[in-house]
Design goal:
single chain; mainly alpha; 4 helices
Length: 93
């Protein structure tokens, strides 16, 4: 990996660790969602959530993080226009 890529990955990892420490993200979001995917796309959803999706990056509050299943998470990453239209992604500006 190039030096810049390593720096970027390290920065993201450190930011995520800080969010977990500050807000205790996993227990809070998982309890709110009851281990279920909060997006629930028809014909895509696997029902049980195991990934975290940030609506705004970096999230200003814990409500800007949702629990998603891997298929729904992949769909959101592959279709950013659809996610913006449905309110599951916003820009910070």
């Amino acid at each position: 990996m190039a030096r810049q890529q390593i720096w970027f990955v390290t920065k993201l990892r450190d930011r995520w660790r800080e969010l977990v420490r500050r807000w205790r993200i996993p227990p809070t979001v998982i309890d709110r969602a009851r281990n279920r995917c909060e997006v629930r796309l028809l014909d895509v959803c696997a029902y049980w959530g195991s990934e975290f999706h940030e609506i705004v990056s970096p999230p200003p509050t814990i409500e800007e993080i949702v629990l998603v299943c891997p298929p729904c998470g992949n769909f959101l990453r592959e279709n950013p226009e659809w996610a913006i239209e449905k309110g599951l992604k916003r820009s910070t500006t």
